[in-house]
Amino acid sequence: MPIGITALGAYTPERVLTNTDLEGMFETSDEWIVSRTGIRERHLSADGEFASDMGVRAVRDLQDRYPDVLDGVDLVVCATSSPDAYFPSTAALVAGQVGLAGAGALDVSVACSGFVYALSVAQGMIMGGTARKVLVLGAEVLSKIVDWQDRTTCILFGDGAGAAIVEDVPDGYGFQSFVLGADSAGGSSLYKFAVADRIPGVPVGTGNAMLGMNGREVFKFAVRVLGDSGEQALGKAGLKGSDIDWLIPHQANVRIIESACSRFGVSLDKTVINLDRYGNTSTASVPLALREALDDGRVKDGDQLLLVAFGGGLSWGASAMRW
Ligand code: ACO
């Protein structure tokens, strides 16, 4: 039996921070941010709201759309780069608040590639017989780990969450392939310290206590890896770029997405882009984009999708799937 996503929910907090608002905070301009990134505004969590709160709201959205959707969930996997705590896991915190206490719960830490990784974890758990029905979350409050004095990083990120149910699906639907990868040789280009204030490539005592990033290095890596991993995922599934109905990329920078489109020969109007309104929401970006494309009728039953993501690690994840 193939395995795939049978339900999807999403949430972004109400508070919106526009590029014009940022102009009042430090030396920048709407024109600079839009031309370099495509981002116009982002949604930010309130003080006292954290990743688990984002995740719970996304699950509430899921329940509003699909009544009784949590019945039978026996595992919760949460991808997050901004967890409430080292432990308990954000997955366990969300599970406890949505009536899933007792289900298995674990976090997946692969920065912005995390949602694709978490889907593959869910698939593997079901294939191995450990779980039957998995709640997969991407839940983030990146706004709480960026340095708001650092104009090269804080302009990029926003908060939000996605929630998906992964389980058996009918023949002809679901996941066709996964490609996952990581290489710590680039770890110093994008990092957030935890217990140790050292990362290979970041000399001790010289790092950023908040999210540290070398934007140009991440940009070059992303352009290469989105194309490579997407092509590998298509190849593993016996597909080619012309088979894609919708490309669902991680929403980091419209110029990175454009380069992936040209690599696959997919036009921009067959690519879901919503970073202009949400910025980079890390693990929430792929489910937010997919949910939007389902709501407005772009993605339809049976469509061929390619999910591609990249992030800290440096890491990458891609999946071919039929919706
Ligand atoms: N407003 C105005 N000027 C700025 C700003 C800003 N917000 N930020 C930087 N600048 C200036 C720089 O200081 C620099 O000035 P200088 O030439 O006088 O030194 C100039 O603009 C150019 O800076 P660059 O860093 O070269 O700009 P670039 O074109 O590379 O764009 C950006 C920067 C947008 C960060 C780009 O490199 C990028 O998007 N990289 C990918 C980052 C990314 O996707 N990160 C998330 C990964 S996912 C995850 O796991 C979290």
From TrEMBL:
**Gene3D superfamilies the UniProt entry points to:** 3.40.47.10
Q: Does the keyword Transferase apply?
A: yes
Reactions catalysed: malonyl-[ACP] + acetyl-CoA + H(+) = 3-oxobutanoyl-[ACP] + CO2 + CoA
User: Which ranges carry the Beta-ketoacyl-[acyl-carrier-protein] synthase III C-terminal domain?
Assistant: 235-323
Assign the protein's first listed, main location to one coarse class.
cytoplasm
Localization terms from the record: Cytoplasm
Q: Which residues form the active site?
A: 112, 250, 280
Q: Kindly state which keywords UniProt assigns to this record, in alphabetical order.
A: Acyltransferase, Cytoplasm, Fatty acid biosynthesis, Fatty acid metabolism, Lipid biosynthesis, Lipid metabolism, Multifunctional enzyme, Transferase
Q: Which residues form the Beta-ketoacyl-[acyl-carrier-protein] synthase III N-terminal domain?
A: 106-183
Q: Which GO terms describe its cellular component?
A: cytoplasm
Pathway per the UniProt entry: Lipid metabolism; fatty acid biosynthesis
Tell me the protein family, please.
Belongs to the thiolase-like superfamily. FabH family.
What does this protein do, in the record's words? Catalyzes the condensation reaction of fatty acid synthesis by the addition to an acyl acceptor of two carbons from malonyl-ACP. Catalyzes the first condensation reaction which initiates fatty acid synthesis and may therefore play a role in governing the total rate of fatty acid production. Possesses both acetoacetyl-ACP synthase and acetyl transacylase activities. Its substrate specificity determines the biosynthesis of branched-chain and/or straight-chain of fatty acids.
Which NCBIfam families does the record match to this protein?
A: fabH, PRK09352.1
What this protein is called in its record is Beta-ketoacyl-[acyl-carrier-protein] synthase III
What species does this protein belong to?
Answer: Deinococcus aquiradiocola
Q: What are the leading ranks of the lineage?
A: Bacteria, Thermotogati, Deinococcota, Deinococci, Deinococcales
Gene designation:
fabH1
